[in-house]
Structures are given as structure tokens and as C-alpha cells.
Write a structure and sequence with these properties.
Mean pLDDT: 75
Shape: globular
Structural class: mainly beta
Helix content: under 10%
Number of domains: 1
Length: 141
């Protein structure tokens, strides 16, 4: 099935912007993270762009490393939400919101494998900006 280039694309992209790298912790050490929002809803036509910002905060009392990545939200028949990162070997992945999203953040960062992460000191807050640019995808023949 071929999509019309101007068709409205409604999607719910969950910006799962944080997962802690688990490091050995001292007794009573607290590692907590705060997100300004973890879910965003946009209606964006193919070829258009939407932007947003999520703020990641270290609410704990130790330094933490926060992985930054995007996943798609899937809702089953019972209304249960699950989150899936794109499978690069699946051609259909190009039709999913997570593949249309790019992240930008200040203050430098590192990578774990190919996943970027930032290090935050206690109380530090970091803005992670994202851009969503849906592509028109043609059906394979």
C-alpha cells in the first residue's frame, strides 16, 4: 500500500530518555532520575517537522549516567503499553516514529555501544531536544 505524501500521520512516540547504567552502589546511596515528561503526542504530515524538549534531572545524591534513546509505544487490545526500539533489519521500521526522531543535547556525551549517554551530577538538569521528521515511505513491489 502506498501512502500519500500529504497524508496526516498521527503517532504517539514515547521518548524513553532514561535508563540508568547500574554501577555498584555504596550502602544507602540513592540514584534517582527525573523526567519533565516521558510521552509526547504529535500530528505531523510526511515531510513536515515537529520539535520538543525533555529535561532529565539527577534527583539522587550520586553521579549517574543516563542513556538517551527513542522507542515506539505500542498499545495492545487490553490497553497495555509496551515500548520497542527500532529493529534496523526490518524494512517496516522506516514507517515507525522512532526512526524519524533525532536527539540533540548540550554539554557533550559519550556512547555505550552506539547509544549516547550523558553523565549528571546530583541536582544537575540537562535539556534533550528532539526533532521528528516523518518520511513518505513507498511500498515495495
Amino acid at each position: 500500500m502506498q501512502r500519500r505524501p500529504g497524508a496526516r500521520i498521527m503517532f504517539m512516540a514515547a521518548l524513553v530518555a532514561a535508563a540508568l547504567l547500574v554501577l555498584p552502589a555504596q550502602a544507602f546511596a540513592e540514584k534517582t532520575i527525573g523526567l519533565s515528561s516521558g510521552t509526547f503526542k504529535f500530528e505531523v504530515a510526511a515531510g513536515d517537522t515537529a520539535t520538543g524538549t525533555v529535561y532529565v534531572t539527577n534527583d539522587g545524591d550520586e553521579n549517574i549516567s543516563v542513556l538517551l534513546y527513542v522507542s515506539d509505544q505500542n498499545i495492545d487490545a487490553k490497553g497495555t503499553a509496551t515500548y520497542a526500539t527500532p529493529d534496523r533489519t526490518d524494512f517496516a521500521a522506516l514507517t515507525k516514529p522512532a526512526t524519524w526522531t533525532s536527539l540533540r543535547y548540550s554539554g557533550g556525551g559519550r556512547t555505550l555501544g552506539n547509544i549516547p549517554y550523558v553523565e549528571l551530577t546530583p541536582g544537575e538538569r540537562r535539556a534533550v531536544r528532539f526533532t521528528i521528521s516523518p518520511r513518505a515511505v513507498r511500498a515495495r513491489r
